[in-house]
Amino acid sequence: MLAAIGNLFLDVTIVPAGELRGDDDQDATIRVGGGGQAANFCAWAVRAGARARLLTMSGGDVRSARGGEATGVIAVLVGAGGRRGFLRQRGASAHLREEDVDPAWLDGVRLLHVPAECLLTEPIAGAARRAVSLARARPAQLSIDLSSAAGIAHHGSERFRHLIEQLAPDVLFATEAEETAIGCSLERLAPLPVRKLGARGCRVGGQLVEGPEVDVLDGTGAGDALAAGFCAARFEGAGPVEAASCGVRLAEEALGRLGGRP
Asked: Helix 240-255 vs helix 222-234: angle between axes, to the nearest 10 degrees?
C-alpha cells in the first residue's frame, strides 16, 4: 500500500482554440476532474497496479466530508506545447489538522509520499508531520517531492532545506529548478534522489532514463505520474533505474492526456 498526504482539488483544465482574445467569446476544450499533487500521485499509483490511499480533507460540498470550506479549485490554462498557467483557490484540504490524522490511516502503508507544498503552511504542515511520524513507526519509507521552486524561494531556501533534512526522506523527487532553488545537491538530502527532467525523462543514480518522443498535450500531473510509477515499481522489487523507467512510461501517458490524469 502506498499513501500520499496533501491537497485534493477540483481541476478545471482549459485549452483555448488559438491565442486568447480579450473581451470576446472563444471556443476551448475544457475538462473537469480531480487534481492536486497528492491526489494525482494516488491515481497514477493505482494506474501502475498499486494500492493507494489519499490522506486529505474535502469540503462541505462533497458528500460525507467534514463541513466547512469548499473543496479547493485549480484552473489550469494550457497553451502551446503543453505549457501551463495555474490559478488556485486552496480550499478545505489546506485545513487538514494534526488531530485529524487517524493512526489507522497509516495501517498497511509501506511508503508515504509527501508533496512539499503541504509542508509550507499550517495547519496541513502539522498534519503532514504527524503522518510522517506515524508512517516511520510502522515502519514505512518516506518520499518527498519538492513541488515548487517558487514555494522554496518564498519559504526561504535555508529554512526549507533544514525542513527536508529533519524529515530525512528515503526518496526525493525534484526538478532542476527546484534543486537550484534549494541550494544544495539532492544527494545531501536523501539516499535516493530522482531528478525529473520533463519530456527528457529523469536521472537516477547518475544514469539518465530518457523519455520517449511524445506530442505533449498537457504537462499537468506528469511529475506526479513519474513519482507514482517509480514508487510503485520500487515496492515490487525493481531497482532504481528500472523503477525510473516505469515512472517515465507513466509520465509519457500523462503528457498525452488533457488534465494529466488516468
From this structure: 150
- Among 171, 162, 56, CA closest to 110: 171
Torsion over CA of 7, 134, 99 and 92, rounded to 10 degrees? 0
pLDDT band at 65 (very low <50, low <70, confident <90, very high): very low
Ordered DSSP codes for 188-234: GT-SEEEEE-GGGEEEETTEEEEPPP---S--TTHHHHHHHHHHHHH
Judged by DSSP in three states, 71 sits in: coil
Catalytic positions are 224
**Residues pairing with 145 in the sheet:** 115, 173
Inter-axis angle of helices 37-47 and 222-234, to 10 degrees?
50
Give the contacts of 171 (CB within 8 A, at least 6 positions apart): 111, 141, 142, 143, 144, 190, 192, 193, 194, 230, 231, 234
φ/ψ of residue 189, rounded to 5:
-105, -20
Alpha carbons 56 and 58: distance in angstroms, whole number: 7
Question: With left for phi above 0 and alpha for psi between -120 and 50, is residue 5 left, alpha or beta?
Answer: beta
Nearest residue to 41 via CA among 136, 149, 143, 127: 143
For residue range 191-236, what is the model confidence (pLDDT) as tens digits? Answer: 999 999 988 899 998 899 998 777 777 777 899 999 999 999 999 9
